[in-house]
Backbone:
């Protein structure tokens, strides 16, 4: 079993509201986060406006809170591990900021500390506003890396076969776009983000992020976590301050991470949070694998029924 958590881009007005209305444990997640942040995150998530929710410093704590709320509601309803209750049977992994959700789920961070961390992470990422990102359609990652060599753009997210994101300064992205089209890319689509995330251009914010990470309260992992930057299984919480610092300027190795989970024996992936983006990526990476998303009461009921039938 693998528990997976979405990253930035999954935010949407109304996220988590239906679960919170039905499950007090989910509602309490929004209360905890709002208290930790000092503003009404619940109102922002449920009422918007969307442009404020989309701001990186707002979107990241909103995404983590909604994911944790969905996980708590699911655990209230029943076991999310098909009846297996040992750490050896459940892995956690999250896409970019979703890795903080995974660390909450695995017991390394309390929700309050996690939302404060990603709020600070988002603020720092917003200040690093040079450059941008673009999705590349129609080429695989190896061909993309060859095409953009020498442009100063980098692969930022290896999300799934045929779904790769590059990142870099504006002139680097222009040069990379021309090179990718010449190499056979069908489309290179600029993304609506405020900076060159997961690229070396964000190395300057890493020391301040690390300071915030080191100031958080860390506990032992109860579940194993696969990290974005190395796609390796980690059993010690003390590994993650360095991993999270590197993650902000390093590629998200999502394909390798999902394949590592499968190599560890995971044959069912459950996504907790708004939308089903990660579920879609998992099924593209591992066709035929059971992948379930939980973001509202109907999807939770479906997941519970499927797991009880496992």
Residues:
């Amino acid at each position: 079993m693998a528990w997976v958590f979405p990253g930035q881009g999954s935010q949407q007005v109304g996220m988590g509201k239906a679960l919170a209305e039905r499950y007090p444990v989910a509602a309490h997640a929004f209360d905890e986060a709002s208290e930790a942040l000092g503003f009404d995150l619940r109102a922002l998530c449920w009422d918007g406006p969307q442009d404020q929710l989309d701001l990186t410093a707002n979107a990241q704590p909103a995404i983590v809170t909604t994911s944790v709320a969905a996980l708590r509601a699911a655990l209230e309803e029943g076991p999310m591990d098909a009846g297996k209750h040992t750490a050896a049977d459940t892995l956690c992994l999250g896409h970019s900021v979703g890795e903080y959700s995974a660390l909450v789920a695995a017991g390394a961070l309390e929700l309050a500390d996690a939302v404060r961390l990603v709020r600070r992470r988002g603020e720092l990422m917003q200040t690093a506003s040079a450059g941008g990102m673009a999705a590349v359609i129609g080429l695989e990652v190896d061909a993309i890396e060859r095409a953009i060599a020498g442009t100063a753009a980098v692969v930022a997210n290896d999300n799934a076969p045929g779904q790769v994101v590059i990142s870099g300064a504006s002139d680097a992205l222009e040069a990379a776009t021309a090179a990718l089209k010449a190499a056979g890319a069908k489309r290179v689509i600029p993304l609506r983000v405020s900076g060159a995330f997961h690229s070396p251009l964000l190395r300057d914010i890493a020391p301040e992020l690390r300071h915030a990470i080191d100031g958080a309260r860390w506990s032992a992992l109860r579940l194993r976590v696969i990290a974005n930057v190395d796609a390796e299984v980690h059993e010690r919480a003390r590994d993650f301050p360095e991993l999270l610092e590197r993650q902000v300027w390093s590629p998200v190795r999502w394909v390798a991470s999902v394949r590592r989970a499968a190599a560890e024996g995971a044959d069912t992936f459950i996504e907790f949070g708004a939308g089903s983006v990660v579920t879609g990526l998992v099924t593209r990476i591992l066709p035929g694998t059971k992948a379930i998303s939980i973001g509202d009461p109907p999807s939770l009921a479906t997941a519970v029924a499927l797991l009880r039938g496992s």
About this structure: Residues 56-77 form the longest helix (22 residues). Residues 15 and 212 are 27 Å apart (CA to CA). Strands lie at 2-5, 91-94, 132-137, 154-160, 163-168, 187-190, 224-226, 233-234, 268-272, 290-294.
